[in-house]
Structure formats: C-alpha cells, structure tokens
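hi! just following up on the protien thing from before. the input was this:
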Amino acid sequence: MICQYGEEASLDSWNPDPEYMRECKQLQSVIGVYTKQQTALKNKLHSLTCCGCTSGCMVRSLKRQLKALKGEITALQHQMEALIKEHEKDVYTRIQSIPGMGKKTAMLLIVATNGFRDFESSKQIASYLGLEPHERSSGSSVRGRKE
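and the predicted 3d structure came back as:
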C-alpha cells in the first residue's frame, strides 16, 4: 500500500534550507540561550538587591556579565539582520511595513517560515506558530453528557 501511494501521489521533493537560513536559525538559537541567561542574571541581581546587598564583588560581577551578554545579543542580532537583508531584503521590508512589526518579529517570522516558502497559506503559518488554537476533544467525559 505504501508503494502504491508513492506511485499515485505527486509529492514535492524535499529541499534543504539555504546555508544563510541555517546560519540564521543557529543565530536565533544562540540568542535565545543568551536571553535566558540574561534573565537568570537579572533575577539573581534583583534577589541580591532585595536582600540589601547593593555593592560588592557579586553585584559588580553580575553587572559585568549582563553588560557582556547584552553586547553579544546585539552583535548576533546585527549579524542575523545583515544576513536577512542580504538574502530576503524585499520580504524583510514588507513585513516591517505592517504596523506593530519590528525588526525582531520580522526576523523571527522569516527564519521560522524559511522566507515564507515552506507554507502555502496564512492559516498554515498561524497553526504552525501556535497562533490559531483549536479545541480537540472527543467523547462526553470532559464536559459531561448533553441531555
């Protein structure tokens, strides 16, 4: 049956992502890691200041780390933006023309959708990104029986 399906169905062949898109995905992943580290450091700094420790080597160390992380995140975002502007300039410009869409959101959308080439409709993109929730339930055990 699988062989018959393969013979009858016309399927598109899989094409790997372009090299720049793979690099953008890696950049986005590293930025995510650094953002989580930044949040953890901010929480620790807040914890120390709430306990009355506003000076000392721990606070200075945390502030240095936060400054370094901020610099790394900014540098990686600029690198990703340069790659996207080089290869997806038209799409990047059009997305940013939408009110409320900034650079980060535009870059995220382009990288997540491979420049909108992996999807055929906006509904597919919304479902893929989890922006269009659907209730999926069966039976009567969740809500009880209808009388």
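The CA atoms of residues 31 and 74 lie 9 Å apart.
Residues 17-128 form one domain.
cheers
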